């Protein structure tokens, strides 16, 4: 019995020792947790982020939010920030600690982006909730902040097929910070009237077109250009050959987010039609070939935006020269008295009523100065030019975009015997996509053309064109074009009408080669005897591009 009692006593002692050991371990654990909590609370009070795995002193959750934007957001901190350590503002996690990261994540998730570029936090009875301040974007040039606006998409006109999505689009060449898109097209054809005159002879022809487009890839500013050279050679008579050229280079300098400078140069080379009233040769002279007409234009413009209001001021200088008239066996006739300079200054105001409509108003004033003050007929053709125009731009994305304008232009001559050349003007450019893979483009234009005929002031030309393109397959497109113009000679009874229509197709073999074909007819109707004609043309060719 005594031995059993000793064993029971030892058992009780062992149980007591185990209980004391467990209690000591629990006390140490509670002390460690309390010490860890105090250290964590001190960390929060010192302003050190709770989550900073890369040890850069910035909360990782804030870094993730900022990386979602390509531009640097700037927040207006004019409103007071609630005290993170205040009792009323603290959120408990059950251990008496403020979970700053969880609260920030909840606030961020509840914030929604508004269409006007501001953020709004829901109240929902939360005393911490407040309306967020407006998000702004830092200007990459000046660093100034300005609000985000809901800007419309760029118009579809001028866009190029995307080589990433179109397997037949030209990929171009990368030259430094520029993209270059060269191409050359060779066509062979036949026309029923190579001279474009009443009773002209039929002829086969060859037409070669070389073109190069380029555009910069700068982060700010832009330089782009488009140069095209064309030569149509008739096999029956070389005097009917038609050279032409069209080149334009434009530069944009982004002074700030709201101010831009633009400048450019353009060159156009064409030939004068044999039926033009300005080719009034003396009796016995026979025209041999078509005289060259060249226009060289430069411009400089400054534009500034004030909220939704856009302002711009542009100056334009145009130099127009006319080549000598070549005759058969009688030498040439000079046209130096037609050469002139046109100087215009244009002020423009536009207001963005919505991303879709931006009405505008512009006024131009300037003058035309001829190289020879008194022409071959004794008329003084230097003049003053005034033009006003109002309209609106339209931008509904790729579905519909363009511009429409109405105006008035007058050219007042120094010679009192010449009546003022004046007319209402209409200008419009519309791009419409009625359905996918189909685009329709339409243009309207009104211009004033000068004259060299004695005591005549010139003519008013109204023109319209419609072009439709349909992609039947990714590598096959069909197209159609119609053009019409009406010329009213202000000081005489002459009237000219020109009509042209054409249908064609383009079969893209790959990214670098395409086959083309076109069939067209044209007709000129004039009240002047001998100035009407008809012509039919068919052509086929190949285009190589890069």
Write the layout of secondary structure elements.
Blueprint: H1 2-45, H2 60-67, E1 73-75, H3 100-110, E2 112-113, E3 119-120, E4 135-138, E5 145-147, E6 173-175, E7 178-191, E8 203-216, E9 222-234, E10 242-254, E11 259-271, E12 292-306, E13 309-322, E14 325-326, E15 332-333, E16 340-351, E17 357-370, E18 383-395, E19 400-413, E20 421-435, E21 438-449, E22 459-473, E23 476-489, E24 495-508, E25 513-526, E26 533-545
Q: Notable features of this structure?
A:
546 residues, 3 helices, 12% helix, three-stranded antiparallel β-sheet, mainly beta
Quick gist of this model?
This protein is mainly β. 12% of the residues lie in helices and 49% in strands.
The total strand number stands at 26
User: Spans of 5+ residues with little confidence (pLDDT < 50)?
Assistant: 1-12, 19-24, 43-57, 64-159
Mean pLDDT: 79
What is the first-to-last residue Cα distance?
Answer: 111 Å
Largest sheet: 18 strands, antiparallel, barrel
Approximately what portion of the residues adopt beta-strand conformation? over 45%
| Shape designation | globular
Radius of gyration from the CA trace?
Answer: 38 Å
Q: Which class best fits the helix and strand makeup?
A: mainly beta
Along the chain, the helix and strand elements come as HHEHEEEEEEEEEEEEEEEEEEEEEEEEE
Residues in helix, %: 10-25%
Number of helices: 3
